[in-house]
């Protein structure tokens, strides 16, 4: 788990490393807009900036918002299909506009027109932030016959409709007889399984259906678009002060070798959920650079993410590192086999620590090696058979490797293998 100070540091660095000083003050001037900025590369995709308008709209303080995933705005009557549409947009790194029922801190609900937009780094060719603009809109309700709902449900379960459920989903809860039905997805384990949930409620309108629809006007959409444009312009302006550049469009340079092939936000989010110190390296790039480093790894070693990505793992080696251990790791990589060694490594400040390192190949959906994962465990001053709450070191490391493999196979597809 993160400590409070470490989490705060990560939230601050999310904006500080991408934009120059003064970005927060510049964003504060847009107090008429309700928006947040989130970072998909931090654990649980947290909010790293919240506007004053957003805080007034929801009733939360800035301290209650920063560091949290935006799901705290959801409630019992939030349409899960709208949530799925948002998640799909994040996974595909696309913009989306969706009307959704959200909840304020006091528990009252409001209809929210959400405009979500990715922010791409032109230098890295990947998304670094998302802008989420919220616009309160009117909620309307209407009654219809149960026959209409039966037809609606039947259409949703036809094969052709199921394949495009996100595109055709309407933003309402369906009350049929005494049974409320919501179509939602269980995302446990990073693998989705669509399920139909029924919750029995009292309903005085037997045979009738109440449809709650959040419908945005064209003026609401234009206001949200203007907010996105203003915020994006400010981010682009302040990124140039530190020699970087951001855009609302992905920009891949043909003559630039990308440091990280992990451009998928969904894969990054899945990897960030793994609360273990580990790195992924790409064996298909020169010098096998690190292409993903977990937050726990950064805590363990003292390095920042920018100092790690693109470098070989030898940055952890020092004058007393045993070369036989290094040779054992190299041989296992050549044989595409797992390996466990107890090796002396060094933190950024020069202090040594004993690292129980487990390395293993990570194959993509086609069965070819896409990455190698290295899971670190600080065993300085511990017994070789150290266990934590009944779980041995080997079990913890194998669990992390398994989680990485599931994420890569399910979300990377054929991936960057050769």
TrEMBL record:
GO biological-process terms attached to the record: response to blue light
One Pfam family hit: PAS_9
InterPro entries per record: PAC (IPR001610), PAS (IPR000014), PAS-assoc_C (IPR000700), PAS-like_dom_sf (IPR035965)
One GO cellular component, as annotated: nucleus
Keyword list, A-Z: Chromophore, Flavoprotein, FMN, Photoreceptor protein, Receptor, Sensory transduction
All residue ranges annotated as the PAS domain in the record: 47-93, 263-336
Stretches assigned to the PAC domain: 337-391
Organism superkingdom: Eukaryota
One GO MF term attached to the UniProt entry: photoreceptor activity
Name of the protein: Putative LOV domain-containing protein
Biological source species: Nageia nagi
Taxonomy of the source species: Eukaryota, Viridiplantae, Streptophyta, Embryophyta, Tracheophyta
């Amino acid at each position: 788990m993160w400590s409070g100070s470490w989490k705060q540091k990560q939230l601050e660095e999310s904006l500080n490393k991408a934009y120059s000083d003064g970005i927060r003050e510049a964003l504060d001037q847009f107090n008429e807009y309700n928006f947040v900025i989130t970072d998909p590369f931090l654990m649980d995709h947290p909010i790293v900036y919240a506007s004053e308008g957003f805080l007034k709209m929801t009733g939360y303080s800035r301290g209650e918002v920063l560091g949290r995933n935006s799901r705290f705005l959801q409630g019992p009557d939030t349409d899960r299909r709208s949530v799925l549409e948002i998640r799909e947009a994040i996974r595909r790194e696309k913009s989306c506009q969706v009307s959704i029922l959200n909840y304020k801190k006091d528990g009252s609900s409001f209809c929210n027109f959400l405009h979500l937009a990715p922010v791409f780094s032109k230098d890295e060719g990947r998304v670094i932030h998302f802008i989420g603009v919220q616009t309160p809109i009117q909620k309307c309700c209407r009654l219809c016959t149960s026959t209409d709902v039966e037809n609606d449900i039947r259409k949703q379960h036809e094969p052709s409709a199921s394949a495009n459920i996100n595109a055709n989903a309407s933003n309402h809860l369906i009350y049929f007889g005494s049974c409320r039905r919501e179509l939602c997805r269980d995302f446990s384990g990073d693998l989705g399984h669509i399920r139909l949930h029924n919750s029995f409620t009292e309903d005085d309108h037997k045979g009738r259906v109440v449809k709650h629809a959040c419908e945005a006007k064209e003026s609401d959409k234009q206001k949200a678009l203007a907010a996105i444009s203003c915020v994006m312009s400010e981010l682009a302006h302040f990124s140039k002060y530190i020699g970087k550049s951001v855009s609302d469009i992905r920009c891949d340079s043909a003559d630039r070798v990308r440091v990280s092939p992990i451009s998928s936000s969904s894969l990054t989010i899945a990897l960030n959920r793994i609360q273990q110190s580990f790195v992924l390296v790409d064996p298909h790039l020169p010098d096998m650079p690190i292409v993903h480093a977990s937050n726990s790894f950064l805590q363990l070693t003292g390095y920042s993410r920018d100092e790690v990505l693109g470098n070989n793992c030898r940055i952890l080696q020092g004058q007393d590192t045993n070369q036989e251990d290094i040779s054992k790791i190299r041989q296992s990589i050549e044989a595409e086999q797992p390996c466990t060694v107890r090796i002396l490594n060094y933190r950024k400040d020069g202090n040594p620590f004993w690292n129980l390192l487990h390395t293993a190949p990570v194959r993509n959906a086609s069965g070819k090696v896409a990455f190698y994962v290295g899971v670190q465990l600080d065993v300085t001053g511990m017994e070789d058979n150290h266990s934590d709450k009944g779980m041995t070191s080997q079990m913890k490391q194998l669990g992390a490797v398994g989680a990485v493999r599931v994420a890569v196979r399910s979300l990377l597809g054929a991936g960057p293998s050769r």
